[in-house]
Specification:
Elements (H helix, E strand, L loop, with lengths): L1 E5 L5 H8 L3 E7 L2 H9 L7 E3 L17 E4 L21 H12 L3 E7 H5 L4 H13 L2 E9 L10 E9 L5 H8 L8 H6 L19 E6 L8 E3 L26 E3 H5 L6 H10 L13 E3 L2 H7 L12 H10 L3 H15 L6
Parallel strand pairs: 1-2, 1-4, 2-3, 4-5
Antiparallel strand pairs: 5-7, 6-7, 8-9, 10-11
Helix pairs in contact: 1-12, 6-12
């Protein structure tokens, strides 16, 4: 199937769809470094059109009748981690996405965004407007929130998928098939150990942000929640899942790893010990953070987002962290693409 990729970023959705067999014939990304990353990992780099999608919409009519348009418009306006501002210009881009659908009129479209867009009453009118506009274009559309860990992505990351289909066909088949695509997820420990020893040439340190304990910690039942350190970076539960990787990684919002506990599963995570001391009444920030406590590397962040090990990222380190945090996990994208093919391919029509 021929695909058009909008708001492509570093290529998370694209990598998954390509692995499933889709052929990307046109792509767009406004961020220079992300576009450079996209091109660096593809032989068909010439199909990437860098710049503002608004300036390139008219050219999409050339590709009218492509099989699918997919993309993840910027989500900061809807995210609970952002200002949740409907007037944020980026919030309008979900409707720019529909403008592209009107020009191309693909058989299907997939739009990915933060779970808040599909979950919160705050955005109910936005959802209704989006669904109504898609319906007026001749598409039957539905949406569902997915916990990507259910699909093998080692991360606590919830996302909404809007799936639209042309010619009056039922989108329900896609959502039913997605329920069949689930798989067991590896732990953070398994993923982090798979990318090479920390400090080696394969997995060098890439985030120098100092880790300091909060003088007034925000306590939760778990040592991996709340705010035990300064900045939004949280300790990673090595035998569980990392938190959602944010686009703001690269500084003190980068997740934190206990290297000693990673090397030896018998060692209790230092933050679990520290949390117990706080619960017992010890004053916060009265101890030094040991030198085996460090930040997540670029290589590890990419693995958590399920990018292929050979995937190359371009730009400064903070720009690379941003690209990784902004991306759709490639394994989840692959499952979405597989679900579409298995239900709606020419060989398997409902």
């Amino acid at each position: 199937m021929k695909a058009i990729s909008l708001f492509a970023g570093a290529g998370g959705l694209d990598t998954g769809f390509e692995k499933a067999g889709f052929d990307i014939i046109w792509a767009n990304e406004i961020d220079h470094d992300a576009a450079a990353t996209w091109k660096a990992n593809r032989a068909h780099a010439n199909v990437m059109h860098e710049g503002d999608i608004a300036d390139r919409l008219s050219s999409l009519s050339t590709y009218r009748g492509a099989d699918i348009v997919f993309g993840g418009p910027p989500c900061q306006g809807f995210s609970v981690a952002g200002k949740m501002d409907a007037s944020d210009p980026r919030s309008e881009l979900i409707f720019t996405f529909l403008s592209a659908i009107e020009l191309v009129r693909p058989r299907f479209f997939v739009m990915e965004n933060v779970a808040a867009l599909g979950r919160l009453d705050r955005w109910a009118k936005v959802r209704e407007m989006y669904l109504s506009q898609a319906c007026s274009l001749g598409y039957r559309v539905d949406y569902k929130i997915y916990h990507t860990a259910d699909y093998g992505v080692p991360q606590k990351r919830d996302r909404v998928i809007f799936f639209g289909i042309l010619d009056g066909r039922d989108p329900a088949g896609f959502f039913r098939q997605m329920e069949k695509m689930k798989e067991q997820v590896p732990t953070a420990r398994q993923v982090l150990r798979s990318v090479g020893a920390y400090g080696s040439a394969d997995n060098p340190p890439t985030c120098p942000a100092v880790i300091t304990l909060a003088r007034v910690p925000v306590m939760r039942k778990s040592p991996y929640a709340g705010m035990l350190v300064n900045g939004a970076g949280r300790p990673v539960d090595l035998d569980g899942l990392p938190p959602t990787l944010p686009a703001s990684m690269g500084g003190n919002k980068t997740p934190i790893i206990d290297q000693r506990a990673l090397n030896d599963a018998c060692c209790e995570n230092w933050f679990a010990t520290y949390h117990k001391k706080l619960v017992a009444g010890e004053k916060p920030a009265t101890v030094e953070v040991p030198n085996y406590i460090r930040r997540l590397t670029l290589k590890e962040a990419a693995a958590i987002q399920t990018f292929p090990e050979s995937y190359v990222f371009k730009g400064a380190r903070n720009k690379q962290y941003r690209q990784i945090g902004n991306a759709v996990p490639t394994l989840f994208a692959y499952k979405v693409a597989q679900a579409i093919l298995s239900v709606y391919s020419d060989r398997s029509r409902e």
